[in-house]
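Holo prediction — NAP.
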Amino acid sequence: MTNPFDLSGRIAVVTGANTGLGQGIALALAQAGAAIVAVGRSAMDETRAGVEAAGGRFHEIRADLSTTEPLQAIVDDTVAHFGALDILVNNAGIIRRADAVDFTEADWDAVIDTNLKSAFFLSQAAGRHMLERGRGKIVNIASLLSFQGGIRIPSYTASKSGLAGLTKLLACEWAGRGVNVNAIAPGYFVTNNTQALREDPERSSAILARIPAGRWGEPSDIGGAAVFLASAAADYVHGTVIAVDGGWLAR
Ligand code: NAP
């Protein structure tokens, strides 16, 4: 019987794959059989080692995703290197923290440009290739802030709420043409993104106390949902945001 979660022969682009959730996702996709194109602005050596140890093929593309300038080249380079682009994971993202009354335009633009604008235009570039082939999977890394307000992170909440909306819009446009667009909403994970929260004893213990699973997530907790959404098992799943949050939203 064929394994519906098997990604053998599939080519997956993962942005921000050098660390954190992007690295966890790249490793899980490679373990499921996909070749990995790791995109980002930092060295990908650790991710390369993990992917190759899992028997996966690996290609690295250096790109700064704070502008749309490199996006088409990411798709072109992937297709030139591996022959196709089957899976896109829009994971790269930043966060800026300040009270809403003090929040600067620079912190607004930086977060929206990376988390939302580049994710949309990379999806557009990859989507054109996928639609032409009649097949593809796009997985956006959303957030609990796609559902909730949060505090002191106005541009982050706007970007992640926007990304959930775009996930649904793209699904509506592309579901009938063989391309699945979905998202994952991670809860609180131990990565660079949450370092400031984890260093604040009050916030850190308040967050932990509210997580039904009783622990923060680890990057290895996120990959299974990405493999599912990237695989044939999710062929009829469109426009959904799957929470991987230790039960946070259930509370
Ligand atoms: P992270 O360790 O800070 O990873 C963020 C990734 O995005 C890094 O690879 C980073 O590269 C990359 N990136 C940021 N700006 C970039 C740019 N201009 N060009 C290219 N790459 C860029 O944090 P993470 O938690 O793994 O974050 C991954 C995604 O999960 C983000 O979209 C984040 O919003 C989302 N998320 C995280 C949590 C959590 O609890 N950790 C919860 C919900 C959602 P560098 O290492 O070079 O900066």
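READOUT: The mean pLDDT is 98.
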